[in-house]
Amino acid sequence: MLKYLLKVLTIFFIHFALSINAFSASVNTSSHSNEYPNRPIRLIVPFPPGGGADFMGRLIAALLHDQYNFQIVIDNRGGANGIIGGSIASKSTPDGYTLILANNTTHVMAVVLNKNPPYDPIGDFTAISMVTQAPQVLISSNKTTIRNLNDLISQSKAKPNLLSYASGGSASQTHISAEILRISADIDIRHIPYKGTGPGFTALMSGEAQVMFVSLPAAIPHIKSNRVNALAITGKKRSLLLTESPTLDESGLKGFEISPWFGILGPAKLPPILVKKLNTDLVSILHNTETQQKLLSQGAISIGSTPSEFKAIILQEIIQLRKIADHIGLRF
User: Fold this and answer.
1) How far apart are CA 93 and CA 255, in angstroms?
2) Which of 77, 142, 148, 167 could form a disulfide with 85 if both were Cys (CB 3.0 to 4.6 A apart)?
3) Domain final residue, candidates 233, 252, 284
4) pTM listed for this prediction
5) Long-range contacts of 7-12 (CB under 8 A, 24+ apart)
6) How far apart are CA 264 and CA 41, in angstroms?
7) What is the CA radius of gyration of the chain?
8) Which candidate, 301, 296, 308, 223, places its Cα nearest to that of 262?
9) CA dihedral 96, 57, 213, 286 (to 10 degrees)
10) What is the pLDDT along the chain (332 residues), one digit of tens a residue?
11) Where among 233, 249, 284 does a domain terminate?
12) Is 182 buried (19+), middle (13-18) or exposed (0-12) by CB count in 10 A?
């Protein structure tokens, strides 16, 4: 009888201790969420300074700083077409203090088109929210006589493989857009990859390359200052910021539409309570009229999605790109 009582008491105390631990963990997690953030947050931008990702990262960092009143430290980790920064983010501690501003390049193209990507774009990350979408613009160097899509096509056909296009790296969004253009227009034009959009921009303006696809927010200042020429945009409609620039569809490439996105993710196993807080705060910022106007003034559309919606979009684009890559033989 005594042994039976001791056994019952032992089981009771074990369950009691487990309940206390579970309660403490719940309180600590809730407290952690209520206190978050209590120190600077690192936002990894997996591309060099000067490009569209860097521009968007600094804009989002400023908005989050206003929200949290804590410094948002931009950490530019360019290289390997965003894979270096993506790999660092995937291995970071899931405490909410390291986030990544990802895009189609890091979470779709880099992993679909590379044979051995170092991370899983779904399993190694926690989706928080899509931030923006913005069309790209096809631009040309002022050192050329290319002023529209027809100029590019006619000159490339007259002298095959003489003209070149710059990109932010092999398997980047800027590369894939140009490859789709090359195949759609049936032209021979050489690819020159750079370590990010910023260096590619520099090469374009120096005349080292003749054309390039760039995100609209990054291109606008250079277009407005007449340092480069806007040939056409990749969206469904003309941009309010470039009303004189036709879409590629209007220019003769029917059905050509590409609208790259940016989004915020954390590493895998980010606590759900932090995901909810970050998502709620980001969506609130992105749905703010002032923020929407600020982004629109730079050619970007404010989104703000749920984590599950964002994750579903990444999965859908991975499937779509695999089909395109298989069809046109794109692999790096």
Assistant:
1) 43
2) 77
3) 233
4) 0.76
5) none
6) 13
7) 24
8) 301
9) 80
10) 444 444 444 444 444 444 444 444 444 444 455 689 999 999 999 998 877 788 889 999 999 999 999 999 999 999 888 999 999 999 999 999 999 999 998 999 888 888 888 999 999 999 999 999 989 999 999 999 999 999 999 999 999 999 999 998 887 889 989 988 998 899 999 999 998 888 998 999 999 999 999 988 888 888 989 999 999 999 888 988 899 999 999 999 998 888 889 999 999 999 999 999 999 999 999 999 999 998 888 788 899 999 999 999 999 999 988 887 887 676 66
11) 233
12) middle
| Residue 9 identity | L
289 domain-assigned? yes
User: Which two three-digit tokens encode residue 135?
Assistant: 């069309």
Domain that holds residue 227: 136-233
Distance CA 128, CA 278 (A): 7
